[in-house]
């Protein structure tokens, strides 16, 4: 049976109970199967691969007589640059579709969210497009990150008073 015919049957159902039963069957039919263990494994190895790449970069930079702190900064810059380039070439979304949360956790996921928003809204112009919407995804992350670190700082301070 075609998808539109299923929806038509739901709409044309005579009783509320029949409508709900048809709707539940339809939802079960169109909902993709979720394989949690596979998703966790993919997220683990994709996120881990990004982190391993970062460690390789940091070790390579430190081998050039750069201090660990500075090497960490250069590594972060390179990972963000690679993430933005991968987003621009359409590779990061494919990697995110496969690796799921594994691509979101590292700093590359943050760079991807900013770059993707900039690309999506560039047609609306520099100010009203990119300027207004560049942090549409990353903004809440920044806001709640700062807010939660403030709260934890207050808790830490209060514990210090005891």
Could you describe the 3D structure shown?
This protein has 162 residues and is mainly α. It folds into two domains: 31 residues; 126 residues, no CATH class. Helix content is 80%, strand content 0%. It contains eight helices and no strands. The longest helix has 27 residues. The protein is extended and about 75 Å long. It starts with a helix and ends with a helix. The model has no long low-confidence stretch (mean pLDDT 84).
Helix content: over 70%
Report the order of strands and helices: HHHHHHHH
**What form results from the Cα inertia axes?**
extended
Number of strands: 0
Largest sheet report: none
Structural class: mainly alpha
Mean pLDDT: 84
Number of helices: 8
Number of domains: 2
Beta-strand share of residues: under 5%
In the predicted model, the low-confidence regions spanning at least 5 consecutive residues are none
Rg for CA atoms: 23 Å
Distance between the termini: 68 Å
